[in-house]
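Note to self: user wants both folds in one dump. Writing first protein now.
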Amino acid sequence: MKCPFCNQENTRVIDSRPVPDNNSIRRRRQCDECHKRFSTYEKIETIPLTVIKKDQSRETYDRTKIQDGIMRACYKRPISVEQIERTIDEIETEIFNKEEREIPSTEIGEIVMNRLKELDAVTYVRFASVYREFKDVNTFMDELKKMLK
């Protein structure tokens, strides 16, 4: 690892600790030449994941799509950014623990809905109404009745 200050290649790891997301390690390093300290992060390289969409087209997995959908569903709800990030991390962990190279978008949607059901009922209903493409009030009410049981 090169020192960001003097570009020297000789650096030592002083301290290592896991980052709260459990998917990376923070390393504190010191340059042998200029003696300045800096941090680096090691992240686990995951298998590239392809999402099979409803129309059978394929695209590369993109965390921001899940994040955008959840953020829209959480709009004006008493849910912190930390809770949202933790939920997205849990969803991603569940997806990648399947160790598949391809996953249907419907499966991702169901995982997201299950996590949102635990997080906040209103957020769950908002997400489900878009994801399940409710056509009318009766379909919406059926989903609410399932949730209330």
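First done. Writing the second protein, which came from a different request thread.
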Amino acid sequence: MARTWLIVGLGNPGPRYEATRHNIGQMVVDDLAARRGEGFRAHKAGARVVETWLRPGADKLILAKPNSFMNVSGGPVSSLARFYGIDADRVVIVHDELDIPYDTIKLKSGGGHGGHNGVRDVAKALGTPDFPRVRVGIGRPPGRQDPADWVLDPFGAAERQTLPHLIGDAADAVEQLVDEGLVAAQQRHHAPRP
């Protein structure tokens, strides 16, 4: 029986933030929509959404990008989950992760927020931290740069060379998580890249 999944790319709204490290979650969700030839539309929950399928006859996907700023992502996420009748264990949050090296993807379900204010707000709004996460590594800033500034900077020139591959790999990880489960997705995406 087909299930419905809510796939949320965290980020900040507006052109100022579009290409920043903090918005990689939204870039991944954009890729998932583009693979299906779909465009986002406004939703009353304060987000832009695409309603689509993993593939014909498979699970339904609600791809979403909150219109709110990162630190208050929980409201739109919980509103969408209620609207579509989706439990937290099928709400997949795609977000940037400072503590994972750039060009690396890690998946998990539950646990702490690791200082990520967007994830913290989603857990608070859903009433549980027990939701799957696709964590896209952006690495820590060099030298003494403040991490808060780092995440709001655009990717550097060298990073931009591999960014499309990283986004594509993260989108693959989301699809595999939905299709085959967390453990299968972890086994594929946690292994070192060939």
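Dump finished. Worth passing along: The mean pLDDT is 93.
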